[in-house]
Design a protein that fits this description.
Layout: H1 16-19, H2 22-38, H3 44-61, H4 65-71, H5 76-88, E1 93-96, E2 99-102, H6 103-129, H7 132-141, H8 146-175, H9 186-213, H10 230-252
Antiparallel strand pairs: 1-2
Helix pairs in contact: 2-6, 2-7, 2-10, 3-6, 3-10, 5-6, 7-8, 8-9
Membrane topology: Multi-pass membrane protein
Organism: Streptomyces leeuwenhoekii
Subcellular location: Cell membrane
Length: about 250
């Protein structure tokens, strides 16, 4: 998989959660999200307990609340969609602060907000405690199709290359006194985008030829074999199992 790549969501640490094998964390987060989505929206107390479980994981991983809340801003578009649902949905209406809102829309908005926020929070905690390279190894260990793992690996690494190329082109434009201030400068930006595409395509061709010359035949060698003990699996699955118990109570009560 090559060298590791740090990303902005990752928070360096040595907590018990950081030390868990990546495939156990991937399986735990996936199972947790499935359980949350399966919970009836009327069981509001259950979502509060899910939030408490995630807070316990964040504490064990030593991830500050501010770090987590800042990353949750990624769901703002979904929040905007949820806010509109009570106004546009059909069915029974109810008056709230002088506004006529749909009952079905209110439940739908709550459903999207609660389940979406919990899912995003779980994903942020996964990213905050697992490096990108480890995530790829975890996907490989979980028997994800090798071609998909390779595509994800190349995308991550090539994304860094393109970002660096964009930075150099921006510095080159600024060194020549260029500063985009209006529509008349869009032509220069369009030409820069075209040049970036050509350079990226040519670089991709060179990388592919270099890989083929070194024996690449459609599969990457497995450098690290990630394993997990029974105790590590038990530790990782504690979150989805506790969530499952809450979900079952939500359906029965």
């Amino acid at each position: 998989m090559g060298a590791g790549h740090a990303h902005r969501l990752y928070r360096q640490g040595h907590s018990p959660v950081h030390r868990l094998p990546p495939h156990t964390k991937l399986a735990a987060v996936f199972a947790f999200v499935v359980v949350v989505v399966s919970t009836p929206r009327e069981a509001m107390w259950a979502f509060g307990l899910y939030a408490v479980l995630l807070a316990a994981v964040a504490r064990a991983a030593r991830v500050p609340a501010g770090f987590l809340l800042k990353r949750l801003l990624i769901e703002v578009p979904f929040v905007a969609f949820a806010v509109l649902m009570p106004f546009v949905a059909q069915g029974e209406r109810v008056e709230v602060l002088g506004l006529s809102l749909s009952v079905h829309g209110l439940w739908g908005a709550w459903n999207v907000l609660a389940k979406g926020t919990l899912g995003v929070a779980a994903s942020v905690l996964l990213a905050a405690t697992t490096e990108l390279r480890a995530l790829l190894l975890g996907l490989q260990r979980l028997r994800l199709p090798p071609l998909l793992v390779q595509i994800a690996s190349f995308m991550i690494r090539y994304g860094d290359v393109i970002t660096d190329e964009m930075r150099r082109m921006r510095i080159a434009r600024q060194s020549r006194g260029f500063e985009a201030r209006g529509v008349r400068h869009w032509g220069v930006l369009a030409k820069s985008a075209g040049a970036l595409f050509i350079r990226s395509y040519e670089r991709g061709e060179r990388v592919h030829l270099a890989m083929v010359s070194r024996g690449y035949a459609g599969s990457m060698p497995v450098i690290d074999e990630v394993t997990a003990s029974r105790a590590q699996w038990s530790y990782a699955l504690a979150l989805p199992l506790a969530a499952l118990a809450v979900c079952l109570l939500g359906w029965m009560l």
